[in-house]
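Please fill in the sequence for the structure shown.

STRUCTURE ENCODING:
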């Protein structure tokens, strides 16, 4: 499975400063590595009134369509976000490889650890990963 330069769906919350900073870093690192990154934060449909039903409908459909269209899912697991967990579950259910970045906490949910292709704790690990062969890198630690 050669994923170098492929389409990434970047699943992450961005609802506080820490999440937003981590997401910005992920967007930068993955794009600099040559990936075609879809980050939902960048596609909020400003022509719709935020949080109205038409806005919800178009954002939901767009995000789901991009998960389906992506070659892989890269999820930031720190400060877990329910939307990110939905996107991971959807990706798994349709056979997309899932890559998880988790630099802060020491434990991880069993449903995430057993669905992923690779688990990263640092950006250096992401950059040094062999995206052409995509070896399995399991989470090692406590699950909840």
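FILLED IN BY: designer on duty
SEQUENCE:
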């Amino acid at each position: 499975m050669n994923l170098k330069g492929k389409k990434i769906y970047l699943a992450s919350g961005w609802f506080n400063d820490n999440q937003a900073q981590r997401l910005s870093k992920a967007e930068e690192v993955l794009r600099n590595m040559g990936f075609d990154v879809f980050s939902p934060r960048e596609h909020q449909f400003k022509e719709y009134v935020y949080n109205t039903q038409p806005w919800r409908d178009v954002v939901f459909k767009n995000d789901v369509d991009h998960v389906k269209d992506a070659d892989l899912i890269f999820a930031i697991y720190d400060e877990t976000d329910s939307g990110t967990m939905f996107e991971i579950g959807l990706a798994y259910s349709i056979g997309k490889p899932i890559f998880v970045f988790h630099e802060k906490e020491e434990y991880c949910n069993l449903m995430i650890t057993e669905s992923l292709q690779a688990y990263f704790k640092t950006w250096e690990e992401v950059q040094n990963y062999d995206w052409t062969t995509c070896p399995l890198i399991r989470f090692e630690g406590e699950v909840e």
